[in-house]
Amino acid sequence: MKKMTENEALLRLSAMCASAEHCSYEMTEKMRKWELPDDAAARVMERLVNDKYIDDERYSRFFVKDKLRYNKWGRRKIDQALFMKRIPEDIRQAVLSEITDEAYAGILRPLLKSKRKATKAASDYEMNGKLIRFAMSRGFDMDVIRMCMDCDTE
To answer: Is the dihedral of CA 84, 90, 95, 98 positive or negative?
Structure first.
C-alpha cells in the first residue's frame, strides 16, 4: 500500500463518514494503518470533527439504537462494545441512561419466550438457570432479567 498524503486521507475519510456513522477511534486506526504521520493525523481528525463528520456522541446514539433494535443486546454488552471503540465513559453512560429498564424488558421478554420454547430442561429451576444465563450472555442486567422472569412465570 502506498503512503497516503494528508489531503488524500482527509478526502477518503470524509467520504467514509458521509456515507455511514463512524467514531474517532475507527478513523484514527485507519490513519495509523495508512502510516500517516501523527501531526498530519491530528490535523485530519480535527478537521473531521470541526466539519461534523465525526461526533462520538452521535455515533454512540446510533450504535445503541442499532444494537437494541437489530441485535437485541442489553446494556452491558452495548457498554462493552462502546468501550472497545474507545468512547469516553461520560458519553457511554449518558447514552445508555436514556434507555429505560422497561425498554430493555420489552426487548428481552420475546427473546426469553422464544428461548423457553426451544430449550429443554428437567425442572423449572434448570429452565430458569438456562434462561438467566442466556439473558446475561446478551448483556442484560439481573434487575431486567428478574422483571422479565417474574412476568413470564405469571
So the answer is: positive
Evaluate whether 17 touches 53 at the Cβ level (below 8 Å): yes
CA distance 154 to 113: 13
How many C-alpha atoms does 28 have within 13 Å on its Cβ side?
A: 12
**Cα torsion at 12, 18, 22, 28 (round to 10°)?**
30
- Dig out the grid coordinates for 62 from the structure: 446510533
Report the distance separating Cα 45 and Cα 35, nearest Å: 14
Give the CA angle between residues 35, 9, 41 to the nearest 5°: 55
| Angle of CA points 83, 86, 90, to nearest 5° | 70
Name every residue whose Cβ is closer than 8 Å to that of residue 141 and which is 6 or more positions away in sequence: 74, 75, 76, 101, 104
Residue 101 CB neighbour total at 10 angstroms = 15
Q: What is the pLDDT of residues 32-75, one digit of tens each?
A: 999 999 999 999 999 999 999 999 999 999 999 999 999 999 99
Span 14-29, pLDDT tens digits: 999 999 999 999 999 9
> Taking each helix axis from N to C terminus, what angle separates 142-153 and 124-137, rounded to the nearest 10 degrees?
140
Q: How many CA atoms lie within 13 A of 10 on its CB side?
A: 15
